Amino acid sequence: MGVKRVMITQEKQYFERKIRDEENEYYRKRQQRDEIDQGKRHFIQMKVESKRMIENQQKQNYLVTMQDRNNKISKLNEKVDQLEEVEKLLVEKLGMTQMNQHQALANLHKVVQICNSGINLKSKPDLKNLNSNSSHFQHSFNTLQHEGRKPGLTQKLNVSSVRNIEGAAAGQ
Fold it and tell me: With contact defined as beta carbons under 8 Å apart, do 141 and 94 qualify?
């Protein structure tokens, strides 16, 4: 009976060890699955956070771009206002005096340089050079008024075209 008992005890120990091993394997696999699931959740969370950060960065870049654009537009609007103010002064001066075409183009070229240099024209500019004759500018002004268009330096103001006209006037 002793041998039978030893065999039963060994068989019992074998099954207990097998059950423990199976339970350990089950818990190990479950722990691995939980770690994988936790890794997936962490990855998804990181992906969402990274997407949110990218969207915020794109939004900030857009806002900075729009702010820069608005600053440039306001600077250009200031230049346009300055040009219109100078234009009014020129029209007033041209109404009082006359200048030849070459002098008028030279003065216009100076005005363009002043406006492009960023000098503030809120203070009255020196118009001493505008005391010659210019039937051409007066004629252009009258033609624009007759056609119903508002005369404006901003309509045709182009430094290269002024230089081309200046060169043609110098050649006359």
Answer: yes
pLDDT tens sequence across 94-111 = 665 555 666 777 777 777
Is the CB of residue 103 less than 8 Å from the CB of residue 129?
yes
Q: How far apart are CA 44 and CA 59, in angstroms?
A: 22
Q: Helix crossing, 135-146 with 101-117: angle to 10°? A: 70
Residue type, 12: K
pTM of the model: 0.39
Q: Is 73 helix (H, G, I), strand (E, B) or coil?
A: helix
Please, are residues 169 and 101 in contact by the beta-carbon 8 Å criterion?
A: yes
Per residue in 59-92, pLDDT (tens digit) is 999 999 999 999 999 999 999 899 888 888 877 7
Handedness of CA 131, 136, 142, 147 (dihedral sign): negative
Looking at this protein, which amino acid is placed at residue 60?
Answer: Q
Q: Where are the beta strands (DSSP E) in 54-112?
A: none
